[in-house]
Amino acid sequence: MRVLLSDGSGLTSRQCATLLAREGHDVSVLAAAALPLTRWTRHVSRVHRLPPYGPDPLGWWDIAVRVLQRERPDVLLPTQEQVAVISRRQRDLDALGVGTVVPPFAALQRVQDKLAADQTLRAAGLRRPSSWVARDAAGLVRGVCGPAFLKAPIGTVSTGVQRVRGRDQVREAAAAFQQAGAFAAGGVLVEEPVAGPLLMVQSVFSAGRLLALHANERTREGGGGASTKTSRSLPGAADDVQLLGWHGALSLDAILDKDGPVWIDVNPRLVEPFNAARSGVDLLGPLLALARGQAGPSTVVGGTPGVRTHQLLLAVLGAAQSGRGRAGVARELLSAATRSGPYTGSTEELTPVAGDPLAAVPVAAAALACLLRPSLERLLTSKAVSGYALTPQGWHDLQAA
User: Among 5, 89, 209, 213, which residue carries the largest CB count within 10 Å?
Assistant: First the structure.
């Protein structure tokens, strides 16, 4: 099958490329960057250059349609925030005979915006952290005096979420949110921290019927995401997620406390499926079947617990980001080379080099850059996100279309 991924820079796209190619599919991508992460793998046959998605998703879509008309893939698979415009313009794909699987736009609106997502999760009866909405910068500064997570209505975890611990950080965050237009877009969601391990829960639905679900614990954070994960069972997760009655892929983050999961984020798309695949839960297969109009398989909830995977690229960036400097980056590389510490019994999920020597290039480049100047990690992380992150204006234009 010929599969076109909507994004070429993100972690999910890179993992999907590996998994799809291993199943014999021909994979190509759309990408804003000249050298996206998916360029450095034999598993991607073509990279189609497009402008950045976020500021003008409708303009991006017009150009994407030209690629679709020329290439005629069997499936366009959303692997980043392009899911919003694909949902809005799905009729264009129907006319071209290109399959996809996305939720109805009205359903997507209920979770794409962080404020709307908070209301949606609460209305479904899912446990949420204590929270309130700051409508302006002054109210945010007055109202937050201790640790909190601040979330803009539109933005990825790396672009729209800030963790603050004191007044000075709150003032800086308020100014940044003001400049980004977060208050004009409805306000900033303020959430109190919840103690416990951070979990990722990924699911696939067919018109409200749960087809697949997997949970893993983010055991270490890196630069731009989880650098290590461990699969685990999560009793009750399927019942909770089922309450959202979805279609397509749905990914959630949760904090596990003594009473069960507290749901802190939701994304209307697939997120990093490799740990699930390694644990025995296929998330991509059901999505491709649905995109081609086929019946979904029998439900699979949970895989083998205790399966460990890692993303060395993120671990290297995280070592530089944490202030450990060159010595920290060097120690991280040594641990990976000797498969010790967090790499004991773990499998590389982002850039596996077995049979794919090009995959080593991004890790080697990031390691060299961070060894020379650790502060370069910020540039390496932000450039990838800028190509696909939806902006408040872009979201406004999509809803008005």
Answer: 5
